[in-house]
Structures are given as C-alpha cells and as structure tokens.
## 1
Amino acid sequence: MYVYKDLVTDEKCRDKKSAVIRKIRMNAGLVGIYLICLASGRDTFDIIDCSNLKQRKYPKKDLYILGIAEGKDNAVELAARLFVTFSAIYGREQFKQQLLNHQDTLFRRY
C-alpha cells in the first residue's frame, strides 16, 4: 500500500488521517470512510469504501491512496478537486502515468 505524501482529506478527516491509515493496515473496520486511489485500469480514480478493505483477499498491496473523505458525496467532491489539481500540474492526459513514474518521491510505502 502506498500513500501520497501530501495526502488530501476533507475537513472531517483532517485530524484522523493517521488513525485511518493505521486502521487500514490493521484490517480494522471503518464505516463511512472512503479512499480516493489511483485506478488500476483505464479510469483515473477509484473511490473505495474502507469497509471493503476488511476482506482478507482485497488487494491492498498495489493501492495508491491519494485522499481520504468521510461520506460518499465528500469523496466525489475530493476526487474532482484532485483531478483539477493534478491536471493543472501534470497535464490533463498524462498525470496518472506521471504519478506512477515518480512514485518513489511522491508516495510512502506502508
């Protein structure tokens, strides 16, 4: 599991981000918390409910977490803000590949 060094959160999760990461690593159940991650396919982002991560077979090994939000609506808004921000920095078409190419400097491994 990789976590973006400048992890983006909504206002409700701002103080809880280290606790959320720790609970994900420990397979603890988190209800109502959503992760914004880089998608493994053609899509840009995946919005994952943290309660899904409690499953033992869920593939957390290659998860690239960019943001944490409380509630589905906040997660969608956060994903939209991330898209606009990364498009401005890296270019609209290429930012997903750029993030993966520079994963050593942009992400921490947990």
## 2
Amino acid sequence: MSNIAEPSTGARSAARPLPLPVRLIDRLTNIVAVLAAAGVVLLVLNIVVDVIGRLLFNAPFPGTIEHTTYWWMPMLALLAFAFTEQRQEHIKVTILLDALPLRMRQIVEGIFGLMATALLIALTYYAWHDAMRGYNFQETTASSPPVAVWPFRFVAVIGMATIALQSAATTFRYFAGLLPRTHEYDTEADVG
C-alpha cells in the first residue's frame, strides 16, 4: 500500500491526494499481489500433497514439477513485481543519484521511469503475443499426464501490464515530487 500523499520537501501541511488513475493503479497492484500470494499458497499445497502422497500412499501427485514450473512459480514471481515497485523495494544503486540535489534527482529518476515504462509496455506486448500463440496451440507439457501451460502464459501478460502501470505511477510520483522517500529527505523537511 502506498502512503505517499505529500511531497518529501517543504512543510508538512495538508496532504495532496493522489490522482484517481494512480490510486486505481495502486489498488490493481494490491489485487495482483494477493494473486501472487495465492500462488505461494498453492505451490506449498501442491508440494505438501505430493510429499504426503509419496510417503503415505506411495503415489505422488502427478505433474507436481510441471505445476510448480509452469503455474505456481510464474504466479509468485511475475505478479509480485508491481507490488515491489509500488513499495519502492527493488534493489537500486543510487550512488550517482544521491549526489544530485533533490529536485534534479526526482527529474532524473522520472526520466528513467519513462524509459522503464516504455520497455515494460513493449515486454507486455510481446508477452501477449506469446500467450496468444500458446492459446492457439493449446500448449501443454510433454509429461504424462500433460499439464496445460497456455493459461499461465497470460500470467506474464498480467504481471508485465501491472508493473508497466505501476512504473508509470512511480514516474508520476517522481515528477510530482512525492519520491524519493528517504529518511535523509524526510528529516530535512522536518527541520525546515
């Protein structure tokens, strides 16, 4: 959840509400993050059922490796990217950015955000074409029994589209002066 509602410089008077599109993107990101968490739970349940079946009944759950590889791992990995971007918890190397004045840093990071958003839109486009190709062929694994892969190709589309939207929202926050939120900048605002 993004609690960024005021600039990181200046007096901390009335908080500016975020524009409706940014709030909607944040809500969508939170919903997709819940789906990523569901992927983790389903992964664990799938493996627990497989282990119990293997140990107690000498009958493992068929397709556990395929389900883990093609269903649950893409869910938990791809659907969590936007949430991590929203919370600004991706790893960043900011050695050069830290040397810039705050407003210049916000502009530079906003420009990088525009480039990242464009790249993510392109990745979403290619993920969509890959998902449609898998759908057209009704793609499955070569295992016995075969496991459908094509529905989870759309997980990549959802994940890429959501992080593209969240990257655009983050870019807005940089240009609006709402990011970065660091202790150093927040204490400057408190002192002034």
